Amino acid sequence: MTTAREGWELPISEAQLTRLTRDMEDAHRSTLPAMRTGAVDLAEQTRTRSTPDDGAADPGRRRFLLGAGGLAAALTLAACSSNGKNTSASSTKGAGGVSASASSAGKYTGDLKVVALAVALENQAVGAYQATLAAAKAGKLGTVPPAVATFVSTAMAQHADHAKVWNTVLTRAGKPAITNVPLSNQAATTSALGKATSVGDVAELALQLEDQAAQTYLFATYNVTSPAGIETAATIAPVEAMHAAILHYVLGQYPVPDDFLPTDKAADPALLTI
Amino acid sequence: MAAERIDTRLLEQLTEQSQDLNSDAVRITNEALGDFTEVARDEAAARRRWWQRGGTVAGAVGAAALMSSLRATAATSGDDIMALQTAASIENLAVSVYRTAAGLPFIKNGNKTIAAFIAKTTTQHQAHAEAFNSAATQAGGKGQTGPDPKYAAVVKQTLPSITTPADVVKLAITLEDVAAQTYTKNVGQVSSAELRKLFASVAPVEAQHRATLLAVQALLAGNTADLIAVPTDVAKLPAAAGSVGIPDTFYPTENASPITEGAVK
């Protein structure tokens, strides 16, 4: 990516971009249908496990809390309880300027709360990368290396696809899709992006978001009950981790820092403001 | 890459920082394995323990649902053990291949960053093998000390033709990908949350190895091996370096090894 005198230019030719896009679409073609099928399965599983009027009595939702026997997990996910009061309480912790499209408390419970969290995280990542491209175009980040530009575009598209799949789960379960970022840390994220003055600044921030996403999906694999949900989270976590590896490299850091992916940076479902 | 580009002190510092970061992750995984051990060793005791631990919520939940949950947590099937053994076999093969690669003259005397990556990745695969075998033995199975037979044959066939770093990288990409795909699929196959956590915490690491190797492969192919460095000159990286390492929107599993592939006979 280069900064042109009168604006921003993509550092590759249109033909190259078209070829890269075609290659990527070919690569994705084999995975997206399967993911959509998985999303349908997950929606069906969550729908059959949900009891709209009395979630507290639903063992499926409780398995979400207890099934993993997950020590801190059970405590953390207490906020995901089907108890409407808990959900409402977490939603009052501050939306941070977020205007949720689905703003009434308690719409997402049990496994669907984790799905909602996933959509929010994916939307947050898409927004961060969009803001990065905008800042680059405005010349606020200095000269942006071509590799960083292609990374941003590629990662952003992948996050958008992840969000689509998770939103499919929500809508098929009869819940509203989430098109914004209903997370209490969004204001801080937006602020940090606004203050970024270099590629390094945005790469650091992007790395935090990618780590958060990858680790949240890891956390989800052993805390959700729906098999399709587990499988979907399992197929996305490695992709976010790969994003993180490239960002580590861009930042001059070793690209594979952990022997085992940790969960200390996983997003707490209580971050959700809806 | 040119040897003069390597700042070995910085590399050592980065390695040290990396090891510090690892310690937390290893501890967390060991804790998970410890939990798994407890659950697998004595299901009845575990049931009592979870019942007590969940005492504050048990009143609000039907006893049947809780017991069902506990059974799911404690269950370890023969399939689980085979999956763990196959995973260990893939790790064993990876360790063997990386060790062999490290001894090749064009690796040993070549790009220092590639050599450092091979060394570090070897230790990470060793840690994975130990974790999988530990879980297998704790569940009542045998540890797998041999390599995955299917890919051992591939390696045996490929090794004689390896003459460049690019050849090594290509083979390593194959092994990392099959590992990542297998563990990603295993997450949905195993019967307990503890095992899901184990497989799901390793798959992304193998995927990161693959991402790194894909980028290295592109740099080697583009005759820009001098950019294979930590830190690198980001401004000089070709545009493709930003996307070649992240080819999948969802990690595929069609090439995952079946759970029986590396099981102890």
From TrEMBL, chain A:
Family annotation (InterPro entries): Ferritin-like, Ferritin-like_SF
Name of a matching Pfam family: Ferritin_2
Region (Disordered): 34-61
Protein name per its UniProtKB record: Ferritin-like domain-containing protein
From TrEMBL, chain B:
SUPFAM superfamilies referenced in this protein's UniProt entry, alphabetically: Ferritin-like
Entry-linked InterPro entries: Ferritin-like, Ferritin-like_SF
CDD domains, alphabetized: Ferritin_like
UniProt-listed Gene3D superfamilies: 1.20.1260.10
Pfam families on file: Ferritin_2
Record's protein name: Ferritin-like domain-containing protein
